[in-house]
């Protein structure tokens, strides 16, 4: 048990990283667009996520009432940039793979704390969990970096007319989902490193298989 403290920390960090991954995936504030025309986008701010785009409008839904209008991305909207669709797939993969990493780590820790002395079994599941953590972290890093680059370059998006969005903002900045994703990447990579560093104790009184 005393040799698995880092792996217990890996499980804790991996759990937080996996939760932050799901939060980032569901958050609409990936890109914050500042627009000049406030005829429909009343607040002058729109949020572009990886699943939908949202803004506050006083006119579009009910005149005189503050409403949030959202439009989900469709698979046939070819004007939506590739980094958004890539983020959808990669974050779903990261969430699934991260869950596998947590499961493998739980199984290995269970054997450690129950006194199971099967070296191969415990070591392989810690290594498997570490691999899953690292892979999940990389799956998050790619879309986060790609979308952050698009924000820095102030890239435009030719939204269809039904989105009620301009093709380019006056300015844009990274939303809350990007730093959340960065923290998730760091935690998952640390978890992977800790899990992969496990070494089964070698003692003369321990039966190893």
Automatic annotation (TrEMBL):
Localization per record: Cell junction, Tight junction; Cell membrane
One GO MF term attached to the UniProt entry: structural molecule activity
Top-level taxonomic group: Eukaryota
Keywords: Cell junction, Cell membrane, Membrane, Tight junction, Transmembrane, Transmembrane helix
InterPro entries: Claudin (IPR006187), PMP22/EMP/MP20/Claudin (IPR004031)
Transmembrane regions listed in the UniProt entry: 6-28, 40-59, 84-109, 121-146, 176-200
Protein name, per record: CLD34 protein
UniProt organism field: Ramphastos sulfuratus
